[in-house]
Task: structure prediction
Amino acid sequence: MPSSSLTAPLDMELRPDKPAMLRVEPPADAASWADECRDALRAQVTEHGALLVRGLGLRDADQAGAVFARLAGPLMTETEAFAPREPRGAGTYSSTTWPANQPMCMHHELSYLLEVPGLMLFACLTAPGQGGATAVADAEEVLRALPAELTERFEREGWLLTRTYNDEIGASLAESFGTDDRAGIEAYCRSHAIDFTWDADGSLHTRQRRSAVVRHPVTGRRCWFNQIAFLNEWALAPEVREYLVDEYGADGLPFNTRHGDGSPIGEDVVQLLNSTYEAHTRREPWQAGDLMLVDNIRTAHSREPFTGDREVLVGMAEPRRLGDSGPTGEASGR
Result:
């Protein structure tokens, strides 16, 4: 089948341990190809939750950004980042800054926002030497596999994200809120249901409660949708967690997650979440030029440890304010 054809069915590669894959011949103009094939590609994302397109030959940020825009329309500007990214064009970013030898556990991007990205787009410009896959996991399957007692509590109470902003670790105030002006930050927090307090040294502490289980806006199916495991202290390497607790105290970690009632989440819960994710993980090593589309609500994604250079660009699109993703209480800045 010609790579740009919309009249014949796509010749998809489907395996239970890998994301759905489409191999194409490099088009003369990747952006025009994306524009022509948009509906067919997006239908595959709807059906499978994620789609890897191999052979597209993406080479630079401008080309990747143009493909992203043709496939998704306007791209989102990231807010409330937990770690720095480098802007690489309008709505196009580098991958999150994170140690190469440490995994980024399965999560749904920016699931602690009130308006979340419905679609994630990834473009691999430089493949790593080893590892570094952006793996995916079906959030409907994960929800069904988790113990009902656990998911019912999180569904009832939600989950709590706590953050402490400092000048050393994680995203800065300006990188997260678009400003370092205190009044502007407070206005943002109040309008986005985030509790906040300021320390005498000027550091900011925030708390925001969000739903852990949501209904997909298209299918209506329930999805395990959060970053409970990824942003929890027990997901950190032991030596990293020990350093951060010694340096900032247990209540001053750059980020942490709790039950919706504010009580701690045990290490056993984080291990259970991550082992359940692993049992439902689909992975395929990156090749230079690859494109991946991920339904951010139905599908969690991760970044595995890697060696060598790795350049994967990211775009976020289709903001969704889910009917059941908001907090159950009101924010009250103090």
In short: Helices lie at 30-48, 61-72, 139-145, 148-157, 173-177, 182-191, 238-248, 267-279. The radius of gyration is 20 Å.
